[in-house]
Amino acid sequence: MNRVVVIGGTSGIGREFARMRAGRGDDVLITGRDAHRTDTAAKEIGARGLALDLSRPREIGAALAGAGRVDHLVLAGISRDDNRVAAYDVDAAVHLVTLKLVGYTEAVHALRPGLHEDSAIVLFGGQAKERPYPGATTVATVNAGVTGLVHTLAVELAPLRVNAVHPGVVGDSPYWRDKPAEVLAGLRARTPTGRLAAMADVVDAVDFLLRNRSVNAVGLAVDGGWLLG
To answer: Quick one: what percent of the chain has pLDDT higher than 90?
Structure first.
């Protein structure tokens, strides 16, 4: 049995990964911003819950104190952001940069006492870093920053392994599944596999990165070849 921590495990892909690992018999701890929602999600998937807001990094250490041994750590907390240079929202940009770069790093720092040489970490980035779109000013920049963060953590925490997963359009995720059919059809048409990534595909990729002892400091794209379309 592994002890698994999923930062941002109350919804979407983070929740699906936590549910899968809890179903496998692992001891899973999930976090979310809202205490009630986190506790409810934890009970539904057979995990433990803890309230934690990545965008408030000074509170992360106290929230994670006493977490104990951590075999696998997944940093899946994200925030949607539509920001453009022509109408730049500084507060929204600072929020996302803080959440994903400072918050992720502080979570690793807070959990460091429980990590060991066989532990593994996966951070969530995204393919906007390779194919920006209007409104991705901050998203693309932050997801590119995840690559740098993975590299430095892999060096600093060696021999512990650190990797990232970079999903493309995940068709059955809460964000994408209710988009207009013509939008999703257009995205499928530009994907070489003819299908959009599914949450199960990303969950499987995260699990692979955590299990494979020879994969380290890589960014794994899960997009069906979307960048080639």
So the answer is: 83
pTM, rounded to two decimals: 0.95
Task: Please list, in sequence order, all residues whose beta carbon lies within 8 angstroms of the beta carbon of residue 206, skipping any fewer than 6 positions away.
Answer: 13, 17, 74, 122, 165
Angle, alpha carbons 77-115-57 (nearest 5°): 40
Phi, psi of 76 (to 5 degrees): -110, 0
Helices (H), the chain: 12-23, 35-45, 60-64, 90-97, 104-111, 137-156, 181-189, 199-211
SS3 220: strand
Helix (H) or strand (E) holding 164: strand 161-167
pLDDT score of 196: 92
185-195 per-position pLDDT tens digit: 888 999 999 99
Residue 56 tokens, joined? 């408030």
Yes or no: say if 184 and 213 are a contact pair by the CB < 8 Å rule. no
Pairing mode, if any, of strands 27-32 and 120-124? unpaired
- Determine the number of helices (DSSP H) and then strands (DSSP E) in the chain: 8, 7
pLDDT at 125: 96
207 pLDDT higher than 90: yes
Q: How far apart are CA 25 and CA 8, in angstroms?
A: 20
Q: Render the burial of 83-107: b for 16+ CB within 10 Å, e for the rest.
A: beeeeeeeebbebbbbbbbbbbbbb
